[in-house]
User: Fold these one by one.
Assistant:
Number 1:
Amino acid sequence: MKKIDRLLLRSFLGPLALTFAVSVFVLLMQFIWKYIDDLVGKGLPLNAIAELLFYASATFVPMALPIAVLFASIMTMGNFGEKYELVAMKAGGISVRRAMMPMAGVAVVLTVAAFLFANHVMPVAMLRYRSILISIAQKKPALNIPVGEYYHDIDGYVIRVGEKDPDGLTMHDIVIYDHTDVGNTQTVITAANGTMQTSPDERYLIFTLNNGHTYTESTRGADYYTRPLLSMDFSQQVLTFDVSSFAFNRAEQMTSSTYHLLTVKQLAATIRGLEGNFDERCGDFRNLIYSYLPAYNQIVRIHNDSAARAPAALHPGSISHRLDTMPHRQRVNVTLRARNVARQSLESSASYNQILRGERLWINKHHIEWQKRYTLSLACLLLFLVGAPFGSIVRKGGLGLPLVASVAFFVAYYVVGMIGEKAVRESALGPEGMWVSTLFMLPIGIVLTLEVTTDSRIFDSATWHKLFKHKKSIDSTDSIDPVKS
């Protein structure tokens, strides 16, 4: 390896590692902000939190690598251009394309590594961190009732706590709204103070309320006339809430995206199976619709002298004529039977349409995940083709312009990718729609690379100024009258 290659790699790998760490940190902060309510107030040990953050950070690697490559390439080539080192390389017979080769090699290696990581490591990391989240959701699921806010996570109840002691169990100024008896009664329980704890199996939440009142208002039913409003005082009351469904719902939400846990090979096999089931479901729907046709034909063939004329009865004019010639009672019966057949067909169509839409959405999500494994990995090389020549053109190093430019390029890439992903999810585009962002950035990278490697000066302001000046001089020469001259 030549000294110039070592110099370029040292200048490239430093910003690459730093930007990668910062990108993972930013994405991790977003993750913590999303699940902060599930982590606070659970009494979790530090090693459990550290393990959760470690596995969550591993899932952000495929997204953070393209950002790091883009920023590092802009910063490295910008620094060399700003210090006129690129000019010195050209004077020494080293072209910009030759100078970009070591960094391009790193980008290719990172592309392959990103794919292998996303295909083999990320599913395991995602399974681990989701398992930890499920354990956290099932650990004291309802002891995180905030102070001064209305807590709605327990089905059928709304709880507000005015104050809470440092032990997290003793509360003051408690108000509980009971909505379990929907429509018949409305119950409000107030207490001066109380304690809260879970059962040993963490299935039930036990409230022990002291010095309170219970107000029950009957809105309808037998008690509405005899006891429209009841008020009771108590010195102590024990309430038990079933919070097992709360933990189950949280766990179900965290494990609903099972396609994230599959490799590319497993995703391909799953997609083939789902597509086969979808085709079978479409066939069942087609057969169901066909099953209504014999009844329809039977209705139409009423008063037909010959069964051979039944196909002709399917003509709308023929149907209208035969209805007009029928007796009134038969016309009513035929109309009612036809209406019932049409209603059944519409109801079946609506039901199957909802089922098919759900299955197609599930299949599209698998396609999206399958395509993401390739598009995010290839983004490392793609964004390098954008960043390295762009840094050579602007010739600005440091953190200012490279940071702004890298954010702008990546946001454009990400937004276009999200548009394509939404189109694929809604079946507006096929699975190939996931490559929209790649097709959007690829021409930009090719144009920038050609600009740098061929010295075409497309983005040189002096070139455009000289071109416009030359065009203006030609226009002024053409405007001179040859007779007068």
Number 2:
Amino acid sequence: MVALIVFMATILLSYAQEVVHPPFQTGDCSICHVKTQDGYSEALTTKVPDLCYMCHTRKDQKKIVHNPVKAGNCTLCHDPHKSKTQALLKAPSQNDLCVSCHPNIKKLLAKSKVHPPVELMSCSACHDPHSEDHEFRLKMPRKEICFMCHPDIKEHAEKSKNKHAAVFMRDGCLNCHNPHGADHPKLIHTAVPKDLCLSCHNKIMGREEDGDIIKNMAEHFALNPNPHGPNQWGDCVACHNPHGSDNFRILKAPFPSGHYAKFSQENYICFMCHDPTPFLEKETEASGFRNGKLSLHWVHVNKDKGIVCGACHDWHASSGNPHHIKDYTEFGKIKFSLNYVPTENGGFCGPLCHPRRGYDRVKPVFNPR
């Protein structure tokens, strides 16, 4: 009898805490424990979890059941008497309890950036700790649960004319973002956004509906060591919207999709960074691409069939020509050399578009028609 009193006293002293299990609060131990001649023993009237389910609805009825629940071990996570934590958890917080069995997640929660739902609301913001019908016991399918908190991204991704396949294929948002924690902005998987992009864009891609082909960008960068500014610092999203866009190649601003277009400053994303003056003024010194003062950008674009920037410049990377001038360009299925040769004050080119012509900023070159 003395031993039992000491046992019960130990429990009462150690559980002078905030959350009290209602059966324990009544002081009637017979609700759960077997009564003996000396009082109550540690033995239970019924095995766990059946004892718990006398008061609580079953937690093991959905397709994917958490292993402790499947084993019927409710007291692995919950204290049957008292706890300082809501739901009578056996840890200072829900996250502390979860990571005691999931050390890989504990490492992620130690990263410099932690996903706010995990940090502020706990693991159960997304996962059911008992059972669910979705993988990882997510409260919604993996491709949809992110949109519970990011409806703006969902609307943008679904309504964009040009959709980024990464948002919808395989793991959806998790293709690019870690849902728990990372050391990188936006919880992306890599320190440099470009490295993440090239983890998929390391092969030729295409769309069956219109036959649009995207080159192997990893190979392109490997063969062309002179990257365009944004690519030099690995920032593909400076120009592209990773969730989708109404613009060509999911760009953040318009750009013509073909080889020719009637020029309009508003129709080119390039002018987010580059000075449009050489394209708007026939005579200028605002560009190095001029013959004397005649702006050759103006000459090329100011016509009904203006030549788009991508005809001569590679906006991702070039082999070494100044100003990212291409070695080769394409017209339809024809690929041909620009034959560009730089000089001290200008240069020459001889593509299929026109005979060999030159320009010089100091001593203008005469180019016969």
